[in-house]
Write a structure and sequence with these properties.
- This protein is mostly helical and 150 residues long.
- It has one domain.
- The chain is 76% helix and 0% strand.
- The chain has five helices and no strands.
- It has helices at 3-33, 37-46, 52-74, 79-102, 120-145.
- The longest helix is centred in the first third of the chain and has 31 residues, at 3-33.
Length: 150
């Protein structure tokens, strides 16, 4: 096996691992929020970025959207789009948490349906996951162009 072929197989393996990990994370996040729309709406409203009516609608939509993204990450034909939307969502989550910290708002993040508090660590994790999602978009583009399925 040549060095180029070995590098490609490692990239494919890392791509699959990243897709499965990110899909699992989004599936878990969406599943834990299903049936908890009132709590999620309260958590979203506590960020003080959107009116309560928007927070209520977002609480209904977000868990389903996260579940759809999880499925999209596992379908080779939808990886780029799902990963791009994951990157946008993760960046939005990071910005929302960062602005709350900067404004001194102490609140539960609403991340997995629990009472976990917003922290700079969570901002960093979301930005790292956003980076993974962007990497998946770029590697999927190269693999699809070269005939791969990553």
């Amino acid at each position: 096996m040549s060095g180029v072929a070995a590098a490609g197989s490692w990239r494919d393996a890392l791509g699959w691992a990243g897709r499965i990990g990110l899909a699992g994370l989004f599936a878990y996040a969406g599943a834990t929020k299903l049936g908890a729309a009132a709590e999620l709406a309260r958590d979203i409203a506590n960020y003080r970025l959107v009116p309560e009516l928007v927070a209520a609608w977002a609480a209904l939509f977000l868990p389903l959207f996260e579940l759809v993204l999880a499925v999209g990450l596992l379908l080779p034909s939808h990886v780029r789009g799902a990963a791009a939307l994951c990157a946008v969502l993760l960046a939005a989550f990071a910005v929302a948490m960062a602005q709350a910290k900067l404004r001194g708002i102490d609140l539960a993040c609403g991340c997995f349906g629990g009472d976990s508090q917003v922290s700079w660590g969570k901002v960093a994790v979301d930005l790292a996951l956003c980076g993974l999602a962007v990497w998946l978009v770029t590697t999927a583009r190269r693999s699809v162009a070269s005939g791969g399925v990553t």
